[in-house]
Design a protein that fits this description.
single chain; Rossmann fold; 5-stranded mixed β-sheet; 16 strands; elongated; binds histidyl-adenosine monophosphate
């Protein structure tokens, strides 16, 4: 029997990885401009981290987390997201002692046992940023500006995107809001899906992000968190809106947006694509001012977002790759065509010299006819074919064919590097 990949966990093949690398490189450069430095945390964490951080009653922890005991019976989890891990590392390594705002970013695989569909996988990849150590709404605005900048940098049109924004207040506002939601949903209990009936008892906020049609209908006139904000949260939200206006960043207030993770306080947002259908959130984030404390650290406010690489690639996939992407996905610059076994050693030496000079070069190891090899060179997108026949080599030369123009020249072997370097 053939062994296949696990459902929802996909291979990313060479023709796709070039685009991934391009997008990753753009992300790294963009976040560096905003002062973020990379943090790499383990893929496996104690399950408790997410139960306490993300919340026991969230779908992510309750239904979707991969949990397993290790050989000593310690309950571990494949990380379903990275914010809790980053905050854990921030506490564990005392990064707060360095003063100022800690700006950390990450890229990597996350795992959720969800129903796989377009733009939704069980192993997926997130890029994300976390800024820890400030309550200033200007930082929320900067984080949202970074989200927009990333999209712009990747060439996505602003008109194809929109930002959903809400404030869900602080833990002091929450009980009143929760109560209001409970009161509102209680008469509709029977109409709710079984999950939402449970949510009604455990955490009625979660009903607002249920995808079920009937639940959404029922939730249409539900109380809005914005009407339950304390003075401080109200002022924070208003200030944020002021900064977004000043930056010229569009947003749509979305009173239903509560996000599926329990750590959020105040600001929550999602940047969505109009071209993605049901799974339209390219990225999502918000503030989590109580998370560090919940994980046993010093009280530290935080704000950040994470986006799904798969979705980004999906929306980018339909576009012309940028110049830089083109450089990454173009094939070898030179393709060597040794005619016989005897020329192979010389060919290997030339390959090594070209590569050391920064010229990408390759040759065919599959031992096909010269015509086939030339076809492969063209297929790989090589610009120059280097013919190394017995005759040419006996004169200390190779024949270079420009595959774009068809022009051929004989070049002394020792001058191949400067010859190719001199050509754009
Ligand atoms: P999240 O909304 O759960 O937030 O995930 C963020 C993004 O990851 C989503 O908007 C989506 O693009 C992508 N994503 C989530 N699940 C999947 C999946 N199964 N397949 C493909 N893509 C997916 C968080 O994870 C928070 N940690 C974000 C954050 C950072 N908040 C503050 N800081």
């Amino acid at each position: 029997m053939k062994v296949e990949a696990v459902r929802g966990m996909t291979d990313i093949l060479p023709e796709e990885t070039s685009l991934w690398q391009y997008v990753e490189a753009e992300i790294r450069e963009a976040v560096a401009l905003y002062g973020y430095r990379e943090i790499r945390t383990p893929i496996v964490e104690r399950a408790e981290l997410f139960a306490r951080g993300v919340g026991e009653t969230t779908d992510i922890v309750h239904k979707e987390m991969y949990v397993f005991p290790d050989k000593k019976g310690q309950l571990l989890a494949l990380r379903p997201e990275a914010t809790a891990s980053v905050v854990r590392a921030y506490i564990e390594h005392g990064l707060y002692a360095r003063g100022g705002v800690a700006k950390l970013y990450y890229l990597g695989p996350m795992f959720r046992y969800e129903k796989p569909q377009k733009g939704r996988k069980r192993q997926f990849h997130q890029y994300g940023v976390e800024a820890l150590g400030s309550l200033d709404p200007a930082l929320d605005a900067e984080v949202i500006d970074l989200a927009w900048y990333l999209m712009e940098r990747l060439g996505l049109r602003r008109e194809g995107l929109f930002l959903r924004l809400n404030s869900i207040g602080c833990p002091r506002d929450r009980p009143r809001y929760r109560e209001a939601l409970r009161e509102y949903f209680l008469p509709h209990r029977e109409g709710l899906c079984t999950d939402c009936q449970r949510r009604l008892d455990e955490n009625p906020l979660r009903i607002l992000d249920c995808n079920g049609h009937t639940c959404q209908e029922i939730a249409r006139d539900a109380p809005r968190s914005l009407d339950y904000l304390c003075e401080g949260c109200r002022a924070h939200f208003d200030e944020l809106l002021g900064y977004l206006d000043a930056l010229g960043l569009a947003y749509e207030k979305d009173p239903k947006l509560v996000r599926g993770l329990d750590y959020y306080t105040r600001t929550v947002f999602e940047l969505a694509s109009r071209d993605l259908g049901a799974q339209d959130a390219l990225l999502g984030g918000g503030r989590y001012d109580g998370l560090a404390e919940a994980l046993g650290g010093p009280p530290t406010p935080g704000v950040g977002f994470a986006g799904g690489m798969e979705r980004l690639i999906l929306v980018l996939g339909e576009r012309e790759p940028g110049e830089r992407c083109y450089r990454l996905i173009s094939g070898p610059r030179a393709y060597l065509l040794p005619v016989a076994e005897e020329e192979k050693a010389e060919a290997l030496k030339i390959l090594a010299a070209l590569r050391r000079a920064g010229i990408s070069a390759d040759m065919d190891y599959a031992g096909r006819s010269l015509r086939k090899r030339l076809q492969v060179a063209v297929q790989r997108g090589a610009r120059y074919a280097l013919f190394l026949g017995e005759e040419e080599l006996s004169r200390g030369e190779g024949k270079v064919r420009d595959l774009e123009t068809g022009v051929e020249e004989y070049v002394p072997v020792g001058e191949l590097v400067p010859y190719l370097q001199g050509r754009s």
